[in-house]
Amino acid sequence: MHNTGSIALSIWRILVGAYFLIMGTVKLASGWLGSGAALNDSLMRMLPQSVPAYADFLQSIVLPNIAVFSALVTVGEIATGLSLGLGVVPRAGALVGAWLTLNYMLMRGGPVLGLEELLFCMSCLGFAMWTEHLRWRLDHLRAGRLRRAPLRAG
Description:
Radius of gyration: 17 Å
Low-confidence stretches: none
Number of helices: 6
Number of strands: 0
Mean pLDDT: 85
């Protein structure tokens, strides 16, 4: 990847990480770890427009275990935000982010209705695929130096 592309991808990674961190922090402050009430309210609003097979999953698996899923969403968003924002195991964070946004997209009715989620899901998949090109990563400090993405001609 060209140097400019590497920088742009890294800036986008940090911004996406900040978004996840903000969303997870809002959920944390709203009590999503202690109760599944907010997630339950959200799901009840979204169920009519959810992809039918996914709506079945929400009704049979998620709703009966709402407190667990509420905590998983909150922790997942915060972990994804920290991972992508700080560049600590960004491939893992990107895969969790892609998984979360895929679920949100299916809940909203698929890629046509969940365009924001589609953008974030594809971005996270890109971060996972091109991790070696991401700059400004704290996990590079473990090796004792802040490595830069390789420069390539072209």
